[in-house]
Design a protein that fits this description.
Elements lengths: L12 H5 L10 H16 L8 H24 L3 E5 L5 E6 L1 H18 L5 H5 L10 H10 L2
Antiparallel strand pairs: 1-2
Amino acid sequence: MRPMIKGVIVTDVESVMLHPSATLLSNDRQKQIFVEKVGQLVSLKMMEEMYVDALVQYAVYYDMWEQAVISMRELGQPFLTRRTETGKIIGHIENPYIALAMKYRTIVNSIGSEFGFTPVSRMKLPTPGAKESPLEQIRKIVNGK
Protein backbone atom coordinates (compact mmCIF):
# COMPACT_ATOMS: atom_id res chain seq x y z
CA MET A 1 0.00 0.00 0.00
CA ARG A 2 1.42 3.35 -0.97
CA PRO A 3 1.18 6.03 1.73
CA MET A 4 -1.47 8.69 1.33
CA ILE A 5 -0.58 12.28 2.11
CA LYS A 6 -3.15 14.61 3.61
CA GLY A 7 -4.08 17.50 1.36
CA VAL A 8 -3.03 15.66 -1.79
CA ILE A 9 -5.74 14.88 -4.30
CA VAL A 10 -6.44 11.14 -4.59
CA THR A 11 -6.91 10.03 -8.19
CA ASP A 12 -8.12 6.44 -7.82
CA VAL A 13 -10.76 4.65 -5.77
CA GLU A 14 -8.63 1.54 -5.24
CA SER A 15 -6.07 3.36 -3.09
CA VAL A 16 -8.85 4.74 -0.89
CA MET A 17 -10.19 1.23 -0.31
CA LEU A 18 -6.81 0.35 1.26
CA HIS A 19 -7.19 3.06 3.90
CA PRO A 20 -7.55 1.59 7.43
CA SER A 21 -10.89 3.34 7.97
CA ALA A 22 -12.36 1.59 4.93
CA THR A 23 -12.15 -1.69 6.87
CA LEU A 24 -14.97 -0.35 9.07
CA LEU A 25 -17.41 -0.83 6.18
CA SER A 26 -19.18 -3.97 7.35
CA ASN A 27 -21.31 -5.01 4.37
CA ASP A 28 -21.45 -4.83 0.60
CA ARG A 29 -24.04 -2.04 0.56
CA GLN A 30 -21.83 0.21 2.72
CA LYS A 31 -18.87 -0.53 0.45
CA GLN A 32 -20.95 0.24 -2.64
CA ILE A 33 -22.12 3.59 -1.21
CA PHE A 34 -18.55 4.45 -0.19
CA VAL A 35 -17.05 3.56 -3.58
CA GLU A 36 -19.79 5.50 -5.40
CA LYS A 37 -19.22 8.67 -3.39
CA VAL A 38 -15.42 8.41 -3.51
CA GLY A 39 -15.72 7.91 -7.27
CA GLN A 40 -17.78 11.08 -7.58
CA LEU A 41 -15.19 13.09 -5.67
CA VAL A 42 -12.31 11.52 -7.62
CA SER A 43 -13.98 12.43 -10.92
CA LEU A 44 -14.30 16.03 -9.71
CA LYS A 45 -10.65 15.98 -8.57
CA MET A 46 -11.82 16.79 -5.05
CA MET A 47 -11.01 13.55 -3.18
CA GLU A 48 -8.41 13.92 -0.43
CA GLU A 49 -7.18 11.27 2.00
CA MET A 50 -8.42 13.24 4.99
CA TYR A 51 -12.02 12.83 3.72
CA VAL A 52 -11.98 9.04 4.06
CA ASP A 53 -13.17 8.93 7.69
CA ALA A 54 -16.16 11.18 7.00
CA LEU A 55 -17.06 9.23 3.85
CA VAL A 56 -16.96 5.97 5.81
CA GLN A 57 -19.35 7.52 8.34
CA TYR A 58 -21.55 8.70 5.47
CA ALA A 59 -21.72 5.20 3.98
CA VAL A 60 -22.48 3.56 7.34
CA TYR A 61 -25.25 6.01 8.24
CA TYR A 62 -26.69 5.89 4.71
CA ASP A 63 -26.90 2.12 5.04
CA MET A 64 -28.54 2.44 8.47
CA TRP A 65 -31.07 4.89 6.98
CA GLU A 66 -31.88 2.44 4.18
CA GLN A 67 -32.31 -0.38 6.71
CA ALA A 68 -34.68 1.76 8.79
CA VAL A 69 -36.76 2.60 5.70
CA ILE A 70 -36.93 -1.08 4.71
CA SER A 71 -37.98 -2.05 8.24
CA MET A 72 -40.54 0.75 8.30
CA ARG A 73 -42.08 -0.56 5.06
CA GLU A 74 -42.14 -4.12 6.40
CA LEU A 75 -44.21 -3.02 9.40
CA GLY A 76 -46.43 -1.21 6.92
CA GLN A 77 -48.07 1.22 9.31
CA PRO A 78 -47.05 4.65 10.59
CA PHE A 79 -48.59 3.73 13.94
CA LEU A 80 -48.64 0.40 15.71
CA THR A 81 -51.59 -0.68 17.85
CA ARG A 82 -50.87 -1.61 21.44
CA ARG A 83 -53.10 -4.30 22.89
CA THR A 84 -53.60 -6.01 26.22
CA GLU A 85 -53.05 -9.75 26.58
CA THR A 86 -56.77 -10.22 25.89
CA GLY A 87 -56.57 -8.22 22.64
CA LYS A 88 -58.19 -4.99 23.83
CA ILE A 89 -56.74 -1.89 22.13
CA ILE A 90 -55.04 0.34 24.68
CA GLY A 91 -53.33 2.84 22.41
CA HIS A 92 -51.08 3.50 19.50
CA ILE A 93 -47.36 4.11 19.20
CA GLU A 94 -45.41 5.57 16.32
CA ASN A 95 -43.56 3.06 14.19
CA PRO A 96 -40.07 3.20 15.82
CA TYR A 97 -38.34 2.99 12.46
CA ILE A 98 -39.77 6.38 11.46
CA ALA A 99 -37.74 8.13 14.15
CA LEU A 100 -34.63 6.11 13.28
CA ALA A 101 -34.97 6.90 9.57
CA MET A 102 -35.36 10.61 10.32
CA LYS A 103 -32.35 10.59 12.68
CA TYR A 104 -30.09 8.80 10.20
CA ARG A 105 -31.27 10.96 7.30
CA THR A 106 -30.33 14.10 9.24
CA ILE A 107 -26.84 12.70 9.82
CA VAL A 108 -26.48 11.63 6.17
CA ASN A 109 -27.56 15.07 4.94
CA SER A 110 -25.20 16.80 7.36
CA ILE A 111 -22.16 14.79 6.25
CA GLY A 112 -23.24 14.78 2.60
CA SER A 113 -23.63 18.54 2.45
CA GLU A 114 -19.93 18.89 3.27
CA PHE A 115 -19.10 17.06 0.04
CA GLY A 116 -21.71 18.50 -2.30
CA PHE A 117 -24.05 15.49 -2.10
CA THR A 118 -27.15 17.66 -1.57
CA PRO A 119 -28.64 19.95 -4.24
CA VAL A 120 -27.93 23.17 -2.32
CA SER A 121 -24.37 22.23 -1.40
CA ARG A 122 -23.70 21.07 -4.97
CA MET A 123 -24.66 24.52 -6.25
CA LYS A 124 -21.88 25.99 -4.10
CA LEU A 125 -19.18 23.83 -5.70
CA PRO A 126 -16.90 25.51 -8.24
CA THR A 127 -17.75 24.66 -11.83
CA PRO A 128 -14.77 24.10 -14.17
CA GLY A 129 -14.49 27.01 -16.59
CA ALA A 130 -17.17 29.08 -14.87
CA LYS A 131 -16.17 32.48 -13.55
CA GLU A 132 -19.04 32.60 -11.10
CA SER A 133 -20.79 30.02 -8.98
CA PRO A 134 -23.89 28.20 -10.26
CA LEU A 135 -25.87 29.99 -7.55
CA GLU A 136 -24.81 33.37 -8.97
CA GLN A 137 -25.69 32.21 -12.48
CA ILE A 138 -29.19 31.22 -11.32
CA ARG A 139 -29.64 34.55 -9.50
CA LYS A 140 -28.79 36.43 -12.70
CA ILE A 141 -31.29 34.37 -14.70
CA VAL A 142 -34.03 34.89 -12.10
CA ASN A 143 -33.31 38.62 -11.81
CA GLY A 144 -33.16 39.00 -15.61
CA LYS A 145 -29.57 40.26 -15.77
